[in-house]
Fold this sequence. Notes:
The chain is built from 12 helices and 16 strands. It is α/β, with parallel strands linked by helices and 364 residues long. The strands form 5 sheets. The protein has a 7-stranded mixed sheet, sandwiched between helices. The protein has a 3-stranded antiparallel sheet with strand order 9-8-14, with no helix packed on it. Strands 4-5 form a two-stranded antiparallel sheet. Helix 2 (23-36) packs across helix 8 (220-229), helix 3 (47-56) packs across helix 4 (74-82) and helix 9 runs parallel beside helix 12. Pyridoxal-5'-phosphate (PLP) is lined by residues 46-48, 72-73, 75-76, 118, 144, 146-147, 168, 170, 182.
Amino acid sequence: MVEPALLASFRRVLHSGRYVLGPEVESFERAWAEYCGTVHCVGVASGLAALALMLAAPGIGEGDEVIVAANTYIATVLAVSRVGATPVFVEPDPATRNLDPAAAERAITPKTRAILSVDLYGHPAPYPELASLAARRNLLFFSDAAQSHGARVRGRPIASWCHAAAFSFYPSKNLGALGEAGAVVTSDPQLAEKIAALRNYGSRSRYVHDLVGSNERMDPLQAAFLMDKLPHLDALNARRREVARKYLDLLRGTPGLGLPPDPGPGDAEPSWHLFAATHPRRDALIAHLAGRGIDALVHYPVPPHLSGAYAGMGLGRGAFPAAEKLADEVVSLPCCPFMDDGMVGRVVEAVREFAGGDRGGEGS
Ligand SMILES: *Cc1c(COP(=O)(O)O)cnc(C)c1O
């Protein structure tokens, strides 16, 4: 469907002779800022680069603390470490699987500089609550929006609720490039300007290097491909929403199965990047589904604090029980915009069949 446009973009970039930054990147930056309801967008090389530069731009570093969800993809935490700051893990609310604002407030110390929430699986974090907490305690409020392209809260794009949001355009995301790419969106002109310099060797004009930057520039070819795919994002998200709706309606009451939060109308609009259910016998459920040709994955089996990378923090099993329980029980059912209703029905049947044969508990 989008292939002819992608091929035309490849030819255009090939013949342009401009292979680093330039007009292709600038036009994507304008389009993505507009889509996100922000004034600025800075295209960068990956989601991790977006997160790290977003933290580095206001000078967060050694001696500073950043509050992060204990249940996230490890990149959120690695970004904090990369700028030299200390990640402070906070338990999720088990009902929403999102950062619990009350727990976040309890984790604030005099060293805290920012709250970095994540819209895990595409479910928006509690933006209004976190924004008012950050304002009250004079902290920056940043979002890891790598899984929530197009998500909204109370009708507003998520990025319009926070100081800045970092996106990844890794190929499997709701808006994916054909390689690596990322972006930071913000309405703060100073922050945007600083990130733009940091991604390009700390340079604001040629051969003048005012900052210790790095090379994390967006590839213009990826920017061009993203421009071709952006017009389809809302329709693809709408189909994801339909698939999720069917799962929520048809799997409700299935014994042992935990479902993701069902967003009420006018409240949060997830991007449904993943449909993350839970089951106490998760691995057996995955094996059962595999036997029926259904591929269910685990996002994510090991919470960051139990990863080797953070073993040095001395946070063992039991440090964050809610995050650990999720890691042990979570299972992503297939939720992709290219699934037809028949496929969704086959997944529902297979899950019910497993739960029916699972004499652990009787449901409604
Ligand atoms: C994908 C992802 C990232 C990292 O993005 P990359 O482009 O792979 O660097 C960060 N955070 C979350 C939550 C992600 O899902």
